Amino acid sequence: MKHRIVVLGAGYAGAHAAGRLARRLHRDDTEITLVNAEPDFVERVRMHQLATGPDLRHRPLTGVVAGTHVAVRQGRVVAVDVERRSVELADGAELGYDTLVYALGSTAAVDVPGAAEHAHHLAGRPAALRLRARLAELPAGASVLVVGGGLTAIEAATEIAERRPDLAVAIAARDGVGDWLSDKARAHLRRVFDRLGVTVHEHTPVARVDGTGAVTGTGDRLPADVTVWTAGFATHPIAAATSLEVAANGQIVVDGTMRSVSHPDVYAVGDAGLAPGVGGKPLRMSCASGIPMAWQAADAIAARLTGRPVPVTPIRYFVQCISLGRRDGIIQLVTPDDRAKPSAVTGRAAARIKEFVCAGAGWSVAHPTVLLPTRRHRVTPAEHLTPTA
Fold first, then answer.
1. What is the SS3 string spanning 42-105?
2. Is 218 exposed, middle or buried (0-12, 13-18, 19+ CB in 10 A)?
3. Which segments of the chain belong to CATH 3.50.50.60?
4. What residues form DSSP beta bridges with 219?
5. What does pTM read for this prediction?
6. What is the per-residue pLDDT across 131-172, written as a single tens digit (0 to 9) for each?
7. Where is the FAD/NAD(P)-binding domain positioned along the sequence (predicted)?
8. What CATH number was assigned to the domain covering residues 3-105+236-316?
């Protein structure tokens, strides 16, 4: 009997995990199924581009996994039964597994009254396309309010302002905008905001959203024809509905090999997993975390199934890449635990580096052998059904 591995979600983390497993494990011993709601791999780090510009390149998952023994199953996951080791899809189908890789990612954290009804977000392709259609309807002089002060907010506000200089774009944040950046990077960000005409409202928590803008915690109104909500991400509720040990935010608690601390046949990667980083600091939800988490999980699964030593490589950070429109950017150097260093690359050079990183991340999904030689090991017979410790 083949060992059944089911990977839920084909974002950066899920797609990398499936491809790496296929190149670590022999096809005669394993059956790998990649489940995804959409037929394509979507470059989520480009959603702000999709919302303001042309369509992104389509990457069918069948092409991504071509030449491997990964089977693609299109379907939306509605439930996971970790006791029965089964996954339920929206069409009523059930998939059994011996090892589960949970990579369903995250969605927008919309926890303010009116935001779900009146604000757009960028947590996926359908949402980005809805925002693009709405922006296209706006006449010159219309206003756009981006709520949030993190990477997504900064990239969305600058992208919209650059693409539509005829719009009045503003950004509102509970704390500072980009306040974690180095002095050099923050100064450059302010210059870009000024150049693009982006109005910045810092220390301005939004308490409510309606059809004409937002209301702050002090009762002030921020008028907007379109509000874009980028104030954080939330996990899908599926894991929290199981007996898996999850954190308060719904992330599955995992060890350094991305293995669930409560269910050894379940691994969680990407935004879905709460994993320790350097110094024990939890990894943040990001592509920079998700891909190394996928590598770690795939290597650990393969090692356990083939009776080899389990590698554990601490996941660390190197840079934060921020696009400020298509021709400007910031590459912030960071410590292994993600704190900003004084050094940063800014301007056109940073924009080129950011594009190289994004293009490389997308390309590597379908070409894992560039970073990983194909060495398919045979599964130890005793390990077919129960992973080892």
1. CCHHHHHHHCCCCCCCCEEHHHHCCCCCEEEEECCEEEEECCCCEEEECCCCEEECCEEEECCC
2. exposed
3. 3-105+236-316, 114-229
4. none
5. 0.91
6. 999 999 999 999 999 999 999 999 999 999 999 999 999 999
7. 4-298
8. 3.50.50.60
